[in-house]
Each structure stands twice: as structure tokens, then as C-alpha cells.
Amino acid sequence: MVSPLVDRLLSLSTPLKYFLALLLLINIRSFPLAWHFRVLAPYYNLRMWHRLHRLSTVHKNKVGKKIASQAWWDSMSPIGQNPFVMTMNYYNWASLDESDFNLHLSNSCYAKTLDSVRFRWACKYAPQLFREGVDGYIPLAATHFLYLREIPILASYEVRLTLGSWGDKWMYAVGKFVTKPKKGRKTEKKVAPSPAPGVFNGPIRTPADDITAPTPLEASTPLLTAADHPADLRKLAAKLATTHEELDGAIVHCISISQFCFKIGRITIPPALVLAINGFSVGDYSLENPPPSYVATKKLFEQPDSKAMKKFLMGGWRDVPKEERWWEVALGGDIEKMRVERLTAMEEIRLGMDAPKAY
Predict the structure, then answer these.
(1) Could you say which DSSP state residue 196 is in?
(2) Is residue 9 part of a domain?
(3) What CATH number is given to the structural domain containing 48?
(4) Neighbour-count burial of 336, counting CB atoms closer than 10 A to its CB (0-12 exposed, 13-18 middle, 19+ buried)
(5) How many Å apart are CA 340 and CA 165, to the nearest integer?
(6) 344 in a structural domain
(7) Which of 19, 34, 55, 160 is the most buried (most CB within 10 A)?
(8) Which Pfam families match (predicted)?
(9) Containing H/E element for 275?
(10) Helices (H) and strands (E) in the chain — how many of each?
(11) For 218-263, how does the pLDDT look when each residue is reduced to its tens digit (9 = 90+)?
(12) How far apart are CA 248 and CA 296, in angstroms?
């Protein structure tokens, strides 16, 4: 028996049916569960490929399966890479359902798109957090946007997500929404007006660390005051803040800063530890020649206790003496220098947005 709703739809005139079909097609990207599919697809894709890999090793014994599984996770990890040079590129377009009456991408859709980009970044650059027995996740604390110019309706655009910095609790990711100029068309550098007095115009590269994390983690570097900001870094910050064009000529439409952390249950994992177990490291290392930090990671995964890594991430790392913390050594040198230089700008934005809580 045909339901009354379907029966009514079938009884509609042909022009009306075409209109409803067109309406459905235009808004299909905003249908129920469409957002969930786009955001969660990278995670389930990662798990699916791992299951397919496990099926290919059914003929091996238990030890052989474990070795093959670890080798697969090794191949999925950014071993020996610098976390600051890794970029997640996500391509999208300003569809009709995501554009407003001004005929450009709605401001609300920048946040919706970032949900997908961040999760893709996590699955690509922090896959070890999603292994069986670890079961980590990444809660978002805040996202801050600076809108520079609109993205026209139906225009294609790209989101470039890179790491900004991290402290003892929070990690910051910088996202840029850009478009490529049409071929044969000269682009002029757009210069933003000078910010009004009282508007935050902090430097991009100045030393500091996370000092207000709710979860008790050890702080390492004190937050500097405005008087400590080097003048040359201020000039660099001013230049970056007023140029609306990337090095490759892409036009920047929006800049976002996402603040998030890593957790297992209600326990926060230090960002440096998450990066290190996924293979990020200073130095000349690779999959064939992994850094000592990744060797230590593999030893944890190879222990008879399948929950060894989970227990370590949930607090076992605190028992490691300060001088033996391999994850801090892995992210030392130039990586630590860059992290410290960038952190003040990220922290000032967070602290500035925390201030209205008192109002």
C-alpha cells in the first residue's frame, strides 16, 4: 500500500514534480545527515582501509598479523615530518544552499566547512589516535574568524589548514579560505585598512606558552608582555595582516583560528605527545629510518597489554622523568623555536575572547 505522502507526490502535475526535484537537487548538500557524512567520512574511510588490510592478512599467524598491522599504521603516519609544514588542502564550492541573499558564501558555512577540514587533518596527520585500543577524539573549544572579502556564489574555493602552534593543553590550527584568480587576469594586492584603536593587532611570531589550561599540565614558557615583542616581528605581522594574497597568487577571503585539544574519555592528552606518537619529529628521519620517539611509540603498541598506549596517553606519561620525555625531544630544535614564537598571537586571541565571560 502506497503511503499518503507518496500518493500525493505522484498525483502532482508534471511541472510541479520538476520544480520539487530541482529544489531537492539544489539543497541536497544540506539534507539531514549530509553534514555527518562529510565530516565522518575520513574516519570511516581510515577504518575501512584498515579492515581491508586485515582481511589481506588472514593467512598469517597472530604475530604476523600484528607486525603487518603495525606496518600499515606506519605507512599512514607522517614519520619524520615537521608539523608546521604540513598543509591539509580541502576543495569546495559555494553552492546555492550555502549562499545567502547577497549572492556569496554565507558566513555560517565557513564554520561548517571547517568541521570537515579539521577532521580530515586529524585522520591524515594523527591516525594513531584513532587506533583500536586508543579511541581518542578531538573536541573543539573555539573558532575565530576574520572575514576579508566574500566568496561569490557558485565559485570554487580552497581551504588550507596548517598548525599555528600548541601549548600544554590547546592546539591551534590556522585555516585560510582562498580562491585562485582566473588565468590571464591580473590580480592586485588588496590592502586592508588599518585597524581601529583598541582592536587587537598582536604580533604573529612572539614567545609564550599555554598557562591557563584547565587540566593540570606542566607549563614550560612564561607568557610575555607587549613590551617584549620584537619590533621586526611587529613589522612582519603588519605585512601579513594587510596582504590578501598568498605566495602562489591565491586570494585570501577568510582566516580562521581553531582551538582544540586531544582527549581519551575526559582525560586531556598533551598535543606534543599526540604529534610525537604519529611520527612528527625534528631531524632527518623517514619511514625507513624512524625517529627515536616513534621507536618508543611502537614499543608501547607492541606490548602484550593492548591498552598500554591508552594507559600511557591517559596519564602514564607523567611517570616519565622530565629528562627522558622522548616526545619533547622529538619536537625540539627548530620546531620548538617556531612553536614558541607563534604561540603568543594564538594565546592573545584566546584570552581576548575569554574576557567577555565577565560581562
Answers:
(1) P
(2) no
(3) 3.10.129.10
(4) middle
(5) 8
(6) yes
(7) 160
(8) 4HBT_2 (PF13279)
(9) helix 271-277
(10) 11, 7
(11) 444 444 444 444 444 444 444 445 556 788 889 999 999 999 999 9
(12) 39
